[in-house]
Known about the structure:
Blueprint: H1 62-77, H2 87-106, H3 113-142, E1 153-154, E2 187-190, E3 194-197, E4 200-204, E5 208-209, E6 217-226, E7 232-234, E8 240-242, E9 248-249, E10 263-265, E11 270-278, E12 286-292, E13 299-305
Parallel strand pairs: 2-13
Antiparallel strand pairs: 1-3, 3-4, 4-6, 5-6, 6-11, 7-10, 8-9, 8-12, 12-13
Amino acid sequence: xxxxxxxxxxxxxxxxxxxxxxxxxxxxxxxxxxxxxxxxxxxxxxxxxxxxxxxxxxxxxxxxxxxxxxxxxxxxxxxxxxxxxxxxxxxxxxxxxxxxxxxxxxxxxxxxxxxxxxxxxxxxxxxxxxxxxxxxxxxxxxxxxxxxxxxxxxxxxxxxxxxxxxxxxxxxxxxxxxxxxxxxxxxxxxxxxxxxxxxxxxxxxxxxxxxxxxxxxxxxxxxxxxxxxxxxxxxxxxxxxxxxxxxxxxxxxxxxxxxxxxxxxxxxxxxxxxxxxxxxxxxxxxxxxxxxxxxxxxxxxxxxxx
Length: 306
């Protein structure tokens, strides 16, 4: 093989040796210059202690709302006589739930603080009304209308003869109509008459059928007239009914008409109202409206023949 001499002014270019098999040489790899250390490739890792943001928990408004609902129901029921006793436990529960709801709202666990406070207010008001009802009924039962040392008198329908020759002794205290279970000292008279205890005159009209739609009842209109010098009490619970079968019944509140209230009567005052009883016997016979006295043995007895 012959080679051509290089031309003047040109540098010979080195030629890479050719593979005897006709393949191209491997491409050149780039290496870092000497004196610089190689840095190995590192895989990036995410931190594992990053804070986790949880969604906020819903407000706990259930107890505050329940306290308001119970307090409102208790307040409405507390104005209804007799039925209003249901308001007493409701108002206590509503007060407790409202207090817990207010505490939760103060801690930021609830958002209905105003509703919880309203539940406390309605529950407290209902509780006070229930206490007033209890005091009124207790006063009606415990109040003394007469003392054991004072004598009782009954108005008589006929006058005694004043003649010295024909003067008859006064009749016994229990004079008047007879009825089963009559006691010594009972002041018995026909319905429509008046019995007086220590200046308080009580009148009971003959029994009549009540207009209740719930049950068959018998009603009488009673009247009080305070002729004494001190305050006297009156109540629907002052009366009982003895039917022909001998059963003694307490008043019912479903008799209809204008029911007798409970309260105090000043000297010279008057009040009247209806007192009704369930007619369990539903038969003809002698019915007796009794007006018992808690502190002495005398009873007023108003008889009605049906």
